[in-house]
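Board notes, transcribed. Complex of a protein with zinc ion.
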Amino acid sequence: MDNHTQSYTIPLEHLLATPAHLWVGQHERVVPTCKRFLQQYFCAQKGCATCMTCTQIEQEQHHAIMWLSPEKGYTIEHIALIADTIIFQLDQGAHYFFIIQKADFLSPLCANRLLKVLEEPPAGYHFILLAQRPDSILPTIRSRCVIQTFPTLTDTRTHSTLFSFFTSKKLDPFLLHELLESSKINERESIELLDELIAFWLKHAKSSLQQGIISDYQYAQKACAVFTHATLQPPMPGSSKLFWKNILLQLHQLP
Ligand SMILES: [Zn+2]
């Protein structure tokens, strides 16, 4: 299985080239990552997190994505719904995603039905299975998927000082310099930290809007845009420090 396991980021083209994926990790971790991934694909600005498309994806209401979860019930009917959907041929170049959350809760019967669908889906249809315990997924399903493992949130907390730094508005460049020196954050950890920061600022934007604190809301939205934009050009090996200093510069320019 390790041969299939890849490091954290998969390029979008790679995801589109293979129909079946299994993302292994905590639900709270893989769902936001999956949404961000879809936003980067569907949004005209490659995942601005604020446009109509990005909002629809966040709210699981985008027309080209079907979200399935055991809470909504994994029954034969649900799997049949997938089979009924992929009967329709997509327009040339169009893509449709099925996100099967908590796929480790699929019953053997459902999993077997799903396997039939996964075997040769028509062009443009993609499956992303999210699961915490890959061992409880049928080996026949696993073998059809490109498997990607995401570290647990507690693992990524080693860089909690950097997280606290970027979630405050007091951005002292000297302090950042010190933190970067002591944390020795690498490229992979940098990408994970970006994910956490995006999740944090999205949540903050939502809550400040609900409380009617407009200045906070605006700052949170812009911070979110800075971090989201940074994911498009992740750090190259050895350039993590420079990467975070550049982010700080961009944050400093926010009103
Ligand atoms: Zn957008």
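Strands lie at 20-24, 65-68, 96-100, 125-131, 146-149. The pocket of zinc ion is lined by residues 39, 43, 45, 47-48, 51, 53-54 (CB under 6 Å).
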